[in-house]
Amino acid sequence: MTSDSADILIVLGTRPEIIKLAPVIRVLERDPSLSYRILHTGQHYDDELSGAFFRDLDLPKPDERLEIGSTTQGQQTANGIVGIEAEITEHDPSAVVALGDTNAVLSAALATSKTNADFVHLEAGIRSFDRTMPEEVNRVLADAVADIAFAPTETAVENLSNEAVPGRVYHFGNTIVDACLKHTDIAAKRSDVLSDLQVAPREYIVATIHRPHNTDAADRLKAIVTALDTQEFPVFLPAHPRTSKAITGLEVTLDGSLTVLDPLDYLDFLQLLDKARAVVTDSGGIQEEASILEVPCLTVRPNTERPETIDAGVNELVEPSTLAASLSDLFADDDKIASMTGHPDLYGTGETATRIVEVLAERFGSK
Ligand code: UD1
Ligand code: UDP
Predict the structure, then answer these.
(1) What sign results for the dihedral spanned by CA atoms 154, 155, 159, 162?
(2) How far apart are CA 319 and CA 101, in angstroms?
(3) What pLDDT sits at residue 260?
(4) Ligand 2: distance of its center to the CA of 182 in Å?
(5) 364 burial level (CB within 10 Å; 0-12, 13-18, 19+)
(6) What are the residue ranges spanned by the domains of the chain?
(7) What pLDDT does residue 6 have?
């Protein structure tokens, strides 16, 4: 139950945080020893990036909403700090929980670190070692003040150890597995996305691109969409608003294999990904989901904070200029496709949320 005064404050602000925190919220719902509230920072505000996920994942509405919106990095973070601090002052939670690496996480970490509440960081310790990404800065700073750090992988535990973070570290996997396993069958039953798009399983590619490094550099974006438009198989790109705006501004004719779609709701996206021949992405969460659903993944980035997917051979880093050749190589070789699957449990087996809430109940619950 959510309540006016709460043991736990959950802070979220964007699509992936809603998806990955949903399993935690579900377990909290069933735990009578912990009360909780949800604060939405409003970083994502369009229904297709926010409200649709609360509905698909059957989540309670947020108790508090900030209206951070689309501004600069500094304004998003600063306004988040002010709003989260006010919420902590009013409702006095014992712990503030945030997941991942968005500006909502940095705001939650900094606001909480100057109060009596403990800061709890989920998906702690992952690193790209690329400080040009705002997300990497957010991760490092959040972990530096976390009282409890839930690391998804051994590598993340090692990274936290190398940084000598002060908080207590637990290694329980990633809640993305819980979300993915719970919803894949539901998506298969409820989603009509394949028939709507008139495609058969394994006969198409799914793509998502939203990192500023790709969207805000016209030459990179042009090379990516051109590669996706010249494929033997249809390519579906459900586009983040940042990406659709950037594609509209490109001087390029796209009349081949690429279809740009609006963002999909979670069940449609999961179904589309689950049945794809391959996925091309720069998303963090989709690199994880591709490994779980055993779909070969090409990541259009120079680095990744998910190195276990590369080590396991289920994900490859590619450059825009080599994307078309990488896709051709992949589809020319069935053995290569098969070799890029077979590691669905890099992030655990689906009990991460339960184990996280057990720790929270032990530390913050009223027995
Ligand atoms: C943010 C996160 C990123 C995460 C992504 C998930 C940071 C620094 N970035 O990036 O780590 O991977 O969310 O999708 O926290 N927009 C809309 N409608 C919305 C929200 C945004 O149209 O509801 C458009 C606006 O033009 C905005 C742009 O998207 O300027 C970028 O939004 P923003 O929240 O700043 O960053 P994301 O790219 O979404
Ligand atoms: N996703 C979705 N619809 C889409 C694209 C992505 O539901 O059209 C989901 C996807 O299943 C994954 C999450 O959004 O769980 C990833 O979010 P995003 O790529 O925006 O952020 P990142 O993971 O890179 O932070």
Answers:
(1) positive
(2) 23
(3) 98
(4) 16
(5) buried
(6) 8-172+351-364, 184-339
(7) 81
| Cβ of 269 below 6 Å from ligand 2 | yes
Ligand nearest to the CA of 209: 2
CA–CA separation, 262 and 266 (whole Å): 12
How does residue 3 score in pLDDT terms, banded at 50, 70 and 90? Answer: low
Closest by Cα among 145, 71, 165, 70 to 105: 145
User: Measured from the CB, is residue 285 less than 6 Å from ligand 2?
Assistant: yes
Fold for 8-172+351-364, please state it.
Answer: Rossmann fold (3.40.50)
CA 171 / ligand 2 centre spacing (Å):
23
pTM over 0.85: yes
Q: Answer for the pair 286, 280: CB distance below 8 angstroms, yes or no.
A: no
CB 121 within 8 A of CB 142: yes
Cβ 263 under 6 angstroms from ligand 2: yes
The Cα 35–Cα 2 span in angstroms is 6
Ligand 2 mean position to 263 CA, how many Å? 9
pLDDT at 366: 82
Ligand 2 mutation target, pool 286, 287, 306, 347, most atoms within 8 A of CB? 286
Ligand 2 and 15: CB distance under 6 A: yes
Q: Is the CB of 44 under 6 A from ligand 1?
A: yes
Closest-CA residue, ligand 1 atom 27, reads 70
Ligand nearest to the CA of 101: 1
> Where on the phi/psi map is residue 236: left (φ > 0), alpha (ψ -120 to 50), or beta?
beta
Q: Is 58 left (phi over 0), alpha (psi -120 to 50) or beta?
A: left
Please say if the pLDDT value at position 2 is more than 60.
Answer: no
Contact assessment for residue 334 and residue 324, using Cβ atoms and an 8 Å cutoff: no
Please name the fold of domain 184-339: Rossmann fold (3.40.50)
- Atom in ligand 2 nearest the alpha carbon of residue 100: 25
| 8-172+351-364 matches 184-339 in fold | yes
Distance CA 7, CA 36 (A): 6
